[in-house]
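[Solved] Which block belongs to which protein?

Original post:
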Amino acid sequence: MGLLMMAPLAWASPCLQDAEGGAGAWSMSGLWHIADASSNTCVGAHSGSHAFYFGLDSQCNYDDGRIKDASLVSPAVTLSSLADANLSFWTRWQVESLDPVCDDKLIVEKSSDGTHWSSLADLGPATDPAGGAPGLGMASTSGLGGEPLWQFVSINLSAYVGLSYSYRFRFVSGASVLGGSYSVCSAPNDAQDNFLGWVLDDISVGCAPGPLSLAQSANPSFASPADTVTYSFSAHNWDTASQSLQVWDTLPAGADFISASPPGTLSSGVEIWSLPSVAAGSSQSVTLVLAVDAGASVPSQWLNTASGSSSAGPPVFQSAQSLVKLEPAGLSLQKSASASTLVAGDQVTYSISLSNYTHSAYPEVDLVEAEPAGFTELSEIPPYDSGSPHTWKALSLQPGETRAYTLLGTVSVPAGGGALVNRVDAEVSGTVNASAQASLAVRQPPLPNLLLHAVYPQPAPSFKAGLPQSVFIYFETTQAMGLTLDLYTVSGELVRSIAVQAPRGKSQVEWNLKNNWGADVASGIYLARLWGKQAQGNLEITARIVVRR
């Protein structure tokens, strides 16, 4: 099996699924659906106005608070010859990449019976940043922390000629690799689902390749003013006869032309190469060297798109895009808080990002966390190397490398009022090289209160397959507090007591319809009392629960 990243010509074919005419014989589960790119610009489409999207149109992410294991599935396809033995598609994605245990997985699989599936390719993050944070631990089609650019993927299916298979694109959130198979983690982590998700378009199963493809890359993937960037392009002739190819590239704004190899023609900011005779099955490579203008605005980015044409087949196509980040040379340190205003007792997550935007390694960087009064730390990822002051020590950063760290803790109102300011320093040889801070306002909590929102299902249990056979009490508190849920029969007999630690805001408590000895309760009416002791007196809410076996 081969996995190529390139850009072929688009051509009309019955084996091409472009989402423009609906899903047809394809099936979708979970958040997979056909998105209208004309109204949902964050999703976009590679061609036409529709694409397959795993995500929520209204939010431009896949944050629905659930564990996800959902697929886009093709009908059964029999490959007739080696000429059409490939699965290709355009894709852009942006997903969680926080740790090797629970990263999101983007998997391409095949099955001969629709039940037993085996992997063809894993498109998700191949590596992880050190530590992680909800706003930073993200990977995409342009790399860790990058923009979700359109890329073309082609998977060689020559081993399956003459066989009938269905193919599926499977999104698994919070996945762990166990024995070579993927299984979802035990609990959702919806704080890391605030990224775009997965977009697919122009899916070709069993189509012969077009007459021309173009691949491009940029080196390095980051640059500073006065640095040089080399773009490499490879045009491949898939036709059965030699043909003339043409490749052109529009120079990014703020780029100074240095050289092209072989020499092309530069006109109005566009470099054009004419390749008169490229043999069948052969490739021709060209390069373009640009310098970042000394006065270029940083931070910013170069988004580069090359195009080409051939003497056979459709005349024009677009290549995959490449992205170069423009950053000031040196260490870059950023810090953010998960909220700008909190109530005393609330939890806050601080996200820290340390990047090396030089072309040399930093062998030893100490990251020193100056935790202020008013912040009580609960945990940090990864753990500190030194406790006083709290420090991640002797960090080694390669050129272009970014590391992410998180702090979780509770807040209180700072002495004397004012903002709660949390600072972090990056030190090299004991000298502060870069600093960053995050500020938030902390206010006194409101008076304690307890509100009932719903009891569901009624009656319980639901008897629906796949759902918990329990009853849930959905409530809200104005402060974090310890509560107790007592369940009684209508005659006043205590059946079950459940301790509840409720954060501020909306929560729910589950009763599994068992008594204190673990036996199922009988059908009937039960009274629920959720209560807690406070300085101002007891708070409580009551509800009636109907159990029908």
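(Second protein starts here: sequence line, then its structure tokens.)
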Amino acid sequence: MDRRLGSGPPWYCHDWELDFVEAVGTVMFLLTALCFEKVYHHIQHNCEHSFVYGQSMLSEEEKHKAVERSSFAKPLRLIWFQRLGGEFMVLGFLAFLIWCCNQQGIMDAFAEITASDMNLPTVGSDYLHLMEAVHMQLFVAMILYFALGIKIVISSDNRIKEFEHNRGVWIEQIMSKTDKNFDTDTRSLLEFKKWRGHFLHGRYGCVREILAWRENEPKTFTKIMGALNINKPEDEITVEDIQKVCTGRFSFCTYLVFSVCSAAQEVVNVSEAAILTIVLLKVFLAILHRGAKVDSATVSTFFSALCFLFIVLTWTITLVFRKALAESEEDIKVMKGVSWLPYVMDKISHKVNPEAFVLNTLQVLLFFFCHTWSGNMIDKNFWNKIFQDGKAGPIGIAILYCVGFIALAQVLPRAVPDFAAVTALPPFFSNSNERIVQMVAVQVVDQKMVAARAQMAQQEKQNENKRPSQAVKEEKDGGQQSEDKQAQEPKDPAEIKSSSAMPPKDQQENTEDPPPSPSKGEKPNVPLLKLPTNNDLEKIDSNIQPTASENPDANVGSKSTTKPKKGKKTAPKTKGSAEPAPLPIGKNQE
């Protein structure tokens, strides 16, 4: 009875014996949890594809796409909260399983197992308390893990808001024809534009990779071309065709948003591959504990250091590629010494999915970090050594884990969203991104960006049409200016005489040729009286007497009489008279 209540001496002599039994119990719980989740997800899948009014005629593939699309329409915090509730449900099922095993005497049956090379619990109550401790350690580890997860989710939301803001600003710039003013762009907006340039036109561009799927992944290529609505034979499709369609209707902002959402969901939803990896590592640790007689304190220090090293390395590589992508739209220029990295990552991305590999590794390492620290948190002996005995070792371990957890809470929210965005671009882009590309191409069309680019294309077309007419106008203006310049230049006396002999037509009809303008300082030589000739008299008659078309009275045969103006005298009209007559009166002079 005392042993059942936790009193009496411990059943183990070395810490590694306790660690071995705990590792075996953790493996059993993880495998049970994995089986429970498989059944749970199977039931959830059937419920998601069950009857819905208006969707009974959809195929299974269309229903699956609708469910997959709806996952990106949910808030990330809601997905985090639902996953947290699911983990608590699994832990509740494990607690129920422990209770059932204790009620059925299975713990007592385990106590009958013995080993020749180590000590094992000898009563069922020891197994009961040990399994309860293992279960509570998993519970606290999940709380710590999801505490880091909510920080990643909040940071991902902020990154998505930044993408959406940059998209809106870029559309406004396109409408106002200021999208080429890179000097006034913010760092985030300029980075967004450069990333899109790499997606379309880069050396390792995603468009070129999609075209390469025609040979490597023909089925995937056919799906993508159908999603992009490219109605051409596959052999005739070129890079320019895909670039044109992606520029016109593919939402690059949505592609980045879906990539960040997918990474955040991957971290929050502990994948099946990550759980199996943890199980294999726990089996290895159990063998290490029993075979090499190594306790978990030494191993946990190694895994914690490895976790920090992996996160720092991932963040450093992300920053290197993020800076390289912001330098140019055509090529990826990384710092000296690692210029080989884009080529290597381009080759690796065709073999494995680098994003999934890194995120699954991150899940495993975060689990071990949280699981190790939670084991110390629920151990009262650990806290007694700190507050009662004042031992330096436990105090240092507690400080290191607290500082490490705070550092992870600061680094992970910055590293994961940026890593997801960078790995969605070259040189990490591969057929693993086909799912998001197809989803965006089929379901999403950026109407505002399409309208803005259509307006920009129309304006460019109008400008091109104006250029020929403007060139012709400039030629005419240039010819007119040259003629005016030639007219202003001094002429020879012979040219002046010939030009004065033949005045313009309007001057011939109205007035005589004006006298040549005198030079500066010279008085004008104007004759005081000029005797008209017979031609001048005929002009006088034609000026004074209007024609029938000008005088309505001429139609009735009456003679027109012109009264001289007051104060002026007119000479008698005598044919052939040699008497002096006034100068001809033109229309302008009158």
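Accepted answer:
You had them paired correctly. Confirming on the second one: The two ends are 139 Å apart (CA to CA).
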